[in-house]
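Hi all, a correction to my earlier message: I attached the wrong file for Retrovirus-related Pol polyprotein LINE-1. Here's the right sequence:
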Amino acid sequence: MLLRPLSKTFQTTHTQWKLSYFLLNNSRFKTINQEEIVNFFQANDTPDVTRSTLWEACKAYLRGQAISFASRQKKAAVERTVWVSEQLVSVNTKYAAAPTPSLYEQCLKLQAEFDLLSTSKVETKLLKTKQRYFEMGDKPGKLLAHQARTAALSRPIPRIRSPSGSVVTDPKLINDAFFNFCSDLYTSEYSPKIWKNHSPVEELSYPKVDGNLADKLAAPIAAAEV
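and the right structure:
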């Protein structure tokens, strides 16, 4: 009997769960977490349960509470953002039709709340990006490879105009054109053979100092000059 390996559809991947550091800055989560720890030990700290089992069960319980709290927070933030954006569109429409001071004040409040929600979302993404950079360090990985590939693709040269005036789109011809241009740019206009028997420096004329003036300059300094 032959055993076939499981396809990728049925293969499961196990990822290690990590406590989000955003929850540690949430005062409500810390309060709830402290209460849950007290309640857990009061209900499960019995003589027939060992300390190691109690501690492992407590960690699993707190992990579930953290996941549940984070999910509720994310869902509430998304719902609030959608509601604020809808209200902002509605109030802006009313204000455009019939502007009043109260509608203007509502627009400012809704816009301020929407900006705060958007800023918090962007801040979360930036902090996660910094954490990924810190974990990767200077090691090559998917993140750095993706950024290098993206940077290379963001500066393409699809076409150039050749010296003859025609438009070139073939990548090989574009590379050849750049190669020829750089070769001509850094090639001297004068051949070294011209200076083989005669140096152009010899044709230069330098100014000369008069003999009497040279003698005066070389003479000792007199007391009157000091």
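Sorry for the mix-up. The helical segments are 21-24, 27-44, 51-97, 101-136, 142-153, 171-185, 211-218.
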